[in-house]
Design a protein that fits this description.
By secondary structure, the protein is α/β, with parallel strands linked by helices. It has twelve helices and 15 strands. Helix 7 links the parallel strand 10 and strand 11. Helix 3 packs across helix 10.
Length: about 300
């Protein structure tokens, strides 16, 4: 997310919520920080600032298994868990999460509301032109949530293009919206929803014929809702993946982070984190940011 959701019966509304105010925080014990607070700006050395103040501000979503905010306020998920581990290797003890919609992540980063994004924000050309992505942490596939039995036979983007009556629910600013736009699926066939739960509601109310989301995100939703089927990974959706995203002005931090990330990937802990959240740690081997940033959209 790209990336939704909850599985998110917790936060992820239309605005930005500071986790310190609404969520108890990370396992490291984060405290609140106001958006646009005193952490690094373009002129500051982000690494030294974060080490000095003891925390890094992170823009996140609430979309298991990529990110997750539990009922007790704990922020975990594949991306935050990897970020936390790499930051500890850099001497940064605490990470403060700020929940925001996907469409606000890069604008908020570049407006200094947070210092890094770790939210399953999938790489594609338009995003890679605005931020510095770390090397990939996860590689993901896309699927459709469809009514039981898939009565309209939706398995591909080509199906959607071929039948102008089909309506597909997507998150505004999400990778899936970009996939449909790149395939020239008309806006009239796209149903914009706020999160995973509202995507399923659109499906149940017949306001959408399918809901496009990362395969693992739909599987997470299905744990609490058995009313829908999940298609096989969509063959004509590009392979994608994500990592941490930094401001272009923070190139020094980006370089240091990538160095420690490469070392961390060689440890058993990296594979343990990915496996815990349902990802295959071998899939990301050999995949580069340069490759994923060629994805159109």
């Amino acid at each position: 997310m790209n990336g939704n959701i909850s599985r998110r019966n917790v936060l992820r509304g239309a605005g930005v919520a500071v986790l310190g105010a609404t969520v108890a925080g990370w396992a490291t014990g984060c405290s609140s920080v106001a958006a646009g607070g005193p952490a690094s700006g373009a002129a500051a050395n982000l690494l030294e600032t974060a080490k000095s103040q003891g925390f890094l501000r992170v823009g996140i979503a609430n979309e298991p298994p990529y990110t997750q905010v539990s009922a007790d306020g704990k922020v975990t998920g594949c991306e935050p868990d990897v970020l936390r581990a790499v930051c500890k290797r850099l001497g940064i003890d605490d990470v403060q999460g700020i929940v925001t919609p996907y469409e606000s992540m890069i604008p908020g980063l570049n407006a200094n509301r947070w210092d890094v994004i770790a939210a399953g924000l999938f790489m594609k050309q338009s995003r890679c032109g605005q931020v510095l992505y770390s090397e990939p942490v996860i590689v993901s596939t896309e699927s459709f949530a469809i009514p039981k039995g898939n009565p309209k036979g939706i398995t591909s983007v080509a199906n959607v293009l071929a039948d102008k009556s089909l309506r597909i629910a997507v998150l505004p600013g999400g990778f899936e919206e970009g996939v449909l736009k790149s395939a020239n699926v008309p806006a009239s066939q796209q149903v914009k929803i706020n999160d995973g739960r509202s995507g399923l509601e659109a499906l149940k109310a017949n306001r959408a014929d399918a809901f496009m989301l990362p395969t693992l995100s739909l599987q997470a939703l299905a744990k609490d809702d058995a009313s829908f089927d999940i298609s096989k990974p969509v063959d004509d959706a590009p392979r994608t993946g994500s990592g941490a995203a930094f401001r272009k002005a923070d190139a020094a931090f980006h370089e240091a982070y990538n160095k420690e990330l490469a070392a961390f990937k060689k440890t058993p802990e990296f594979a343990e984190i990915l496996t815990k959240w349902g990802f295959d740690p071998t899939v990301v081997e050999g995949v580069t940011t340069e490759e994923l940033c060629k994805t159109a959209g």
